[in-house]
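Subject: Glutathione S-transferase

B.,
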Amino acid sequence: MSRKLYSLCGTDRARPFSPHVWKTKLSLAHKGLDFDVVPVGFTEIPKVEEGATRLVPLLRDGDQLVQDSFAIAVYLEENYPDRPSLFGGPGGVAMARYVEGWSQTTLHPVIARIVITDIHDSLDPVDRAYFRESREARFGASLEAVAETGGAALATFAEKLEPLRHMLKFQPYLGGERPLFADYIVFGALQWARIVSPQQLLSPGDSVTSWFERCLDLHDGIGRSVTAA
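Prediction pasted inline below.
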């Protein structure tokens, strides 16, 4: 198979956890495209494809290399137009840009505080050193200090999901009756936490929880192919 998806993982190579890679995995499944997952650790990424990227996901599709989950989704949409659409038209691309901004500025920073030591502990020693140095520089504090804020972040996390909860009063997915790439963006963030941490971000009976469970079942249950922590 010529299609490869480079995917971030820890010591257990069968547990890819990057939220951005999960967006791409569901995008490929949405399009009905076969692919092989190539697991890599943090410090292995710069060695992939002769230094093609410092971040994952990276998709090799034949002789094409595409990086960044949104760019990959656009690439798949343009190059496989005969398969189910990831956006449903230009308006869907614009909507997905907004959803991505909301997810990365509102959800990701909070989830990172909740799961940061769980991520660290799941990594190989060489990747632990990299992760500690890079994340402590990003947060301006030790991992342990960041983790101490995780309890408060978890207590208020449900409030961050209110825009999604409001939308789910009217339709089952952000894409409407069926999921689109916008759904995969938010799913990726929650899947990240589900895989790396035993912390429960979602509550039983919440409409967001029901939506997330539906997303786990999509495309022959690809989201459930990795069990919860």
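The chain has two domains: 3-79, 90-225.

T.
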